[in-house]
Design goal:
The complex is a heterodimer of chains A (about 525) and B (about 325).
Chain A (H helix, E strand, L loop, with lengths): L12 H5 L4 H29 L10 H37 L7 H24 L12 H5 L4 H28 L12 H33 L12 H34 L7 H14 L15 H29 L8 H24 L1 H7 L3 H31 L1 E2 L2 H28 L13 H31 L1 E2 L36 H7 L5
Helix pairs in contact in A: 2-3, 2-4, 2-15, 3-4, 3-6, 3-8, 3-13, 4-6, 6-7, 7-8, 7-9, 8-10, 8-11, 8-13, 9-10, 10-11, 11-13, 11-14, 13-14, 14-15
Chain B lengths: L14 H34 L16 H29 L8 E7 L2 E5 L5 E3 L1 E5 L4 E7 L4 E5 L4 E5 L5 E5 L5 E7 L12 E6 L1 H10 L6 H11 L2 H5 L17 E3 L5 E3 L2 H9 L22 H13 L6
Parallel strand pairs in B: 1-5, 4-10
Antiparallel strand pairs in B: 1-2, 2-3, 5-8, 6-7, 6-9, 9-10, 11-12
Helix pairs in contact in B: 1-2, 4-7, 6-7
The chains are: A mainly alpha (about 525), B alpha+beta (about 325).
């Protein structure tokens, strides 16, 4: 390790905060996201502790409402949406395509500053007095009735949206323009296909959110009557606009996770992903059809029954490509040579949890059942299986997989596996009981609840404690390894991807010689035989 | 009974809730099959093809397209079946039939105010007779609320600015939860009430025992005079405003050439936004009553005008 790498190139603060190196910007994002994740997680923990008993005992209703709003806003916009794209994506995309950097390095840095400005604005709203509208900002509650920092919080989200757009734009241009010689579209790792699909949604959907929040703020300030029925507005218009962004945003949150899972499953079964082209196009199909399903959030709102019919149908259609992916991952395992390293444990957990999340999504797409289950804990359980069981699990899997590349160090495999197993059990104990609560009819966003729901709430709260502890574990063993871990070889997993062909951590400009690609991705057999383990 | 085999799932209490439960069971069985198959394959592959295990790894599947087409088609067909099933029941649930027994519900932060046609008012409670379809006419005074009776597997949002019809029917006497399911502010979780389903005889008794109050229609008639509506609409005068006798439920020709049915929504809109749908051959003279009447008063006016339906024009 005599040569300098991107971490040792310069040690000044200036070299970090004015860097245009995609790897350092990824680290900046990573550090900020940890903070947001634990703020959002602390709110969730407080909520679960409060719900252990039917009465109000820990906080007042006003505080409770602020807690779940803060949890939602922070987790959606300041953790889940930027999580994989802005940390792992930022770091890995140029390495994966054999480029020196993203297409617009300075735009990349600007996007982090915009993100932080948005994040700090929202944090200010939360700590100055909080927001009590729920992360969905439904009108007319948010425009006429809420006495909280609605505008400031919405401004933070509005600002962070520009960061999303810039990142999406950067990825699209990078993947189009900066691929190494020989790296054709069908030789791209599937992580890039899914990030590409994600970026398309980021660029096309985020402006709609900006417009929606702007209209909401205008209404709140000036009472112009866009959403206020008393002066000719329509509260449901807000829901249409909001979900036109926020449903595609669900795919912003899950597609990158699916991308990571392709890399993990393939690497740890030493086998090419089954049905590569199908999986690749499924990502784009999800991105496209995902724009046409927003009305499934409004089956009981009073939208026309015909509209509900169409949105229900489209919601079933959008589930097809997701199902195809699950089948392909399973088929990838067939006749593989499966290693159960920590990243693979996360990947297998993802398949199970995502499948349950996806299937319960079909329950909710099913019109008559949705009438009963919507706005109950069934929905809460469903989207946590996708967002936390799916996306966060994939994030942790990807983080462990690329950790040796990012830090140049190896983590403790024992602790990593323990954490993976604990997260899996803690997660299921937290969220599975919520399906039962929802089926029994417990509405969401309830601070106090009838006592017959207590049993399942206690189980859920118990699971949340385990889950919170399990999420803290990586802070310690990954944190320790970053400074004191064994040095990682360039290619600890014997993987054929370009990011493994350069040293760990990579040099400032990624590759000393321009890599040239001559074969399809995921050629694990050849890699296995050609390169002896050098760990 | 098949329902007892599903844990934590209490039998529904209305004609439709049984259908929803059956649908839920169907979804559960379909999911259990998929999850079972998937977990079986995952376990099998993970065990058989674990690294270091000597087993046959030759003849890997290279051509994948017929697998892809098969499971795409299979998923699509299953999904289509579930879609049709869910949609069919949905249309039955939300179908409302004209029924004489209307009950009026005003939702506001954070209570349910229910009113029977005879004037009996309740807060956070609703008494109804069993085995009889009841049409609820719901309005919200402030934000969006959602009327949710878990035992009936039934909910509907109550959006301010519009009336929402919902038909309910309960087969068995008893006390059932009424929840607000749409987040509505500080005391959202306190906006809960009780549905009391009674035998028809008990229900009639209950109605007569309530504090005597005048029927909603006559209160509406009084408002009609106090607010000055009767100056133009009343007394058989047809010069400035159309007469309202016999209008309810009938088609009304409008000045723009279209026709609307004079239902609750149209009457409400005509009081609040009189110039948006003007009756043919009349001038748009009527002032808006927006902000001058509460949802409770609006309901009474609508009921009063409805009570004029039987009168000849």
């Amino acid at each position: 390790m005599s040569e300098t790498n991107y971490l040792t190139a310069d040690f000044t603060l200036r070299s970090w905060f004015l860097t245009t190196d995609h790897k350092r910007i990824a680290i900046l994002y990573f550090a900020s996201l940890i903070v947001f994740f634990f703020i959002g997680g602390a709110a969730a923990t407080a909520i679960r502790i409060e719900l252990a008993t039917p009465q109000a005992d820990l906080v007042s209703s006003d505080i409770y409402n602020r807690l779940f709003t803060m949890h939602g806003i922070i987790m959606v916009w300041f953790f889940l949406i930027p999580s994989i794209p802005n940390t792992l994506g930022n770091f890995i995309v140029p390495l994966m395509i054999g480029a020196r950097d993203l297409a617009f390095p300075r735009l990349n840095l600007m996007s982090w500053y915009i993100f932080m400005l948005g994040g700090c604005t929202t944090l200010f709203a939360i700590f100055a007095g909080g927001v009590d509208t729920g992360w969905t900002f439904y009108t007319p509650f948010s425009t006429l009735y809420s006495n909280s920092y609605v505008i400031v919080a919405a401004a933070g989200v509005f600002i962070a949206g520009f960061s999303s757009i810039l990142t999406g734009l950067n990825f699209i241009v990078t993947i189009h323009r900066l691929r190494a010689p020989g790296l054709t579209w069908y030789r791209l790792p599937l992580f890039l296909w899914s990030l590409y699909a994600t970026s398309v949604i980021l660029v096309l959907a985020t402006p709609v959110l900006a417009i929606t929040l702007l209209l909401m703020a205008t209404e709140r300030f000036f009472g112009v009557g866009i959403f206020d029925p008393r002066i000719g507005g329509d509260p449901l218009l807000f829901q249409h606009l909001f979900w036109f962004y926020s449903h595609p945003a669900v795919y912003i949150m899950i597609l990158p996770g699916m991308g990571v899972i392709n890399e993990l499953i393939s690497c740890f079964s030493r086998k090419q992903v089954f049905g590569y082209k199908f999986v690749a196009w499924c990502s784009l199909a999800i991105a496209a059809v995902g724009f046409l399903v927003w009305g499934h959030h409004m089956f009981v709102s009073g939208q026309s029954l015909i509209a509900s019919l169409v949105f229900s149908f489209m919601s079933f259609i959008v589930a097809v490509p997701s199902a195809i992916k699950v089948f392909n991952w399973t088929a990838t395992l067939h006749k593989g040579s499966i290693h159960f390293d920590a990243p693979m444990l996360y990947a297998l957990a993802f398949i199970g949890l995502f499948t349950i999340g996806g299937l319960t999504g079909l329950f909710l797409a099913c019109l008559a059942f949705d009438v009963h289950a919507t706005d109950t804990y069934f929905v809460v359980a469903h989207f946590h299986y996708i967002m936390v069981g799916g996306m966060v699990t994939a994030y942790f899997g990807g983080l462990h997989y690329w950790w040796p590349k990012i830090t140049g160090r190896l983590y403790s495999e024992y602790w990593a596996r323990t954490a993976a197993v604990l997260i899996f059990f803690g997660f299921n104990l937290t969220f599975f009981p919520q399906f039962i609560l929802g089926a029994e009819g417990m509405p969401r966003r309830y601070h106090v609840y009838p006592p017959e729901f207590q049993l399942w709430n206690v189980l859920s709260s118990g699971g949340a404690v385990i889950l919170a502890a399990a999420y803290l574990m990586p802070v310690f063993y990954l944190g320790y390894s970053a400074f004191f871990g064994r040095r990682a070889p360039a290619n600890p997993w014997d993987a054929p991807g370009l990011e493994w062909q350069t040293s760990s951590p990579p040099p400032e400009f990624n590759f000393t010689v321009q890599p040239v690609v001559t074969r399809d991705p995921y050629q694990y057999n050849e890699a296995f035989e050609a390169e002896p383990q050098n760990a | 009974m098949w329902r007892q085999w599903i844990p934590f799932w209490h039998p529904g209490l209305s004609p439709h809730s049984g259908d929803v439960d059956l649908l839920f069971t169907g979804l559960l069985i379909a999911s259990a099959l998929v999850v079972g198959l998937l977990f079986f394959l995952l376990t099998l592959f993970c065990a058989r093809y674990r690294a270091g295990n000597q087993t046959d790894r030759d003849h890997r599947v290279k051509k994948s397209w017929h697998w892809e087409v098969s499971w795409t088609a299979a998923s699509f067909v299953c999904f289509l079946g579930l879609f049709v099933w869910g949609a069919t029941v949905y249309f039955q649930i939300y179908r409302t039939q004209a029924d004489e027994h209307d009950i009026f519900i005003v939702a506001k932060q954070w209570m349910w105010k229910t009113q029977h046609p005879g004037g009996q008012a309740e807060i956070d409670a609703l008494h109804i007779p069993v085995k009889r379809p009841i049409r609820l006419v719901m309005a919200s005074q402030d934000v969006i609320h959602s009327f949710f009776i878990p035992a009936l597997r039934l909910k509907h949002d109550v959006v301010p600015g519009r009336y929402q019809d919902l038909e309910i029917e309960i087969d068995k006497p008893g006390h059932y939860h009424l929840f607000c399911a749409e987040y509505c502010g500080t005391d959202h979780s306190g906006m809960i009430g009780e549905i009391v389903a009674m035998d028809p005889a008990d229900f009639s008794n209950w109605l007569t025992q309530q504090a005597p109050s005048s029927p909603l229609a006559s209160e509406g008639g009084q408002l009609f005079r106090e607010l000055g509506c009767s100056g133009c609409h009343g007394g058989g005068g047809t010069i400035r405003a159309p007469p309202l006798e016999g209008v309810y439920g009938k088609p009304v020709p409008l000045s723009d050439g279209t026709t609307v049915i004079a239902d609750d929504k149209y009457i409400r809109d005509s009081i609040l936004m009189p110039r948006s749908q003007v009756v043919a051959s009349y001038q748009p003279l009527m002032p808006s009553f927006e902000g001058k009447v509460s949802e409770d008063q609006l309901l009474r006016l609508v009921i009063y005008i409805k009570s004029l339906a039987g009168h000849p024009t």
